[in-house]
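INTERNAL AUDIT FORM
Audit reference: QA-55
Scope: verify that the stored structure record matches its stored sequence.
Auditor: D.O.
Record contents follow.
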Amino acid sequence: MYLLQSRYKLENSCLHYYGLKNKENLFKNLIKLNKKQINIINKLPKDLSIEEKRILGNKILGIAVVEEEKYKKIPTSLEEARFCKSCAANDFIIPGIEFDENGLCPMCQTKESTKWMKAVIPVLNDIPHSKSSRFDVAVFYTGGKDSTFLLYYLSKIMKLKVLALTWEIPYMSLSAKLSIEGAKKNLDNVEFISRKIDNESLKKIYSKLYELSENTCACPSLAYVLFYEVLVDEKIPYFVAGNEPAQMKGLYYNNMAPKIAYKFASSKLLNFLISLGRILILHPPLKKGQFQTLATMKQLAYGDNIFKKMAGYKNDLISNVCEAIKEVPSILKPLKRAIKRSSWSGNIPAFIQVDLNDISKDGIYDWRKIKDILKDECGYVAPESLSKGLHTSCQIEKCKEYSQFIRFYNMKSSMIPFSALEISLASRDKNISKEDAIKEIKENLGFDLKEVEECQIMKKYFQK
């Protein structure tokens, strides 16, 4: 008896694999089929004739179509999971992940070849003082550990004048609120601005977003919408989102950013051609990081451009937020005005990444040690769960993790849960020990086949 191997699904004349394959087949998740092959697969499970086996061929038979005894069962809990020998990756939080003969996951198999991949935006750890603005840099500040560490580094270590921009989400955690107050008292070089979206508008956006994604996570996209005009008006030269290294590399393993995207910022030829194109339409040339800013803001204001669609790389998180924002078109008017004004004037804040590994002791952004520094220097307040290190600023983070996980688990979305990749990469790169990472997965993250309690907090807000 032959049947379709687990994690394969017939879609649009292709077999789609929902998982993360070993190094040699990384991202080779589609098998195109002809009509005869589709006809056979639609009849599975069944015994196959010699002719049917010939029609399926070696690319399908034994890989996507297997005998019953070779069918791989997907774990239903963390206790049943197989773990990578080196990191916290496992086939429960990432169903369909493969392991090589040494027991290593694809992320560990490719560790050395992806070491150089730091960010899809320019990395700038040494930010100069501004001559044209009263601020040197702006940070999107959530009160979580990563953005708090950035404030500490930029203001106390680099002695820069920092503008901290906080979007007041309705689900902000108590620890994040207390950490923001602590930072206000302890960081003299930082000016704080916070904004919120009125409840009626936000509920419309959240309702649509939930319909598309089964969660309401819109960070940091809506923060960009709220604050881009401020960045332009203040002539701020640089702004930082506050992503840690694992988040940046997670985009690659989620097949949302190709390797070339990590080279783009340093490519002199590509940046020259972009600037040349702007000069031809009487716009000033772009400095490093300014193209990334315009691309990000234009996507939020107008949706994906034709070239991105043609490239085949899609970020469902951003695309769904863009679609949800259309429910309140007026919220985009200030953003569109600021895009046009900054593009014509060249007064575009550069979108940059500060590499948290590079600026940390021994080149490792150690979650435990960082928390101790932040408590002493910034008045940072850790979450109630002392082991929690991944995304500490939001009450419903578990809800986002659960919805991404359950959609991927049930093969409704090809997006691997972001937190599953991030906790695995963080343990691979020693930002957190494997033992602590597994503890965090068990105690703090939303990887569960039953809906987590936090989902009710989210629904209660926008369904009132």
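Auditor finding: record pair retrieved intact. The mean pLDDT is 90.
Action required: none
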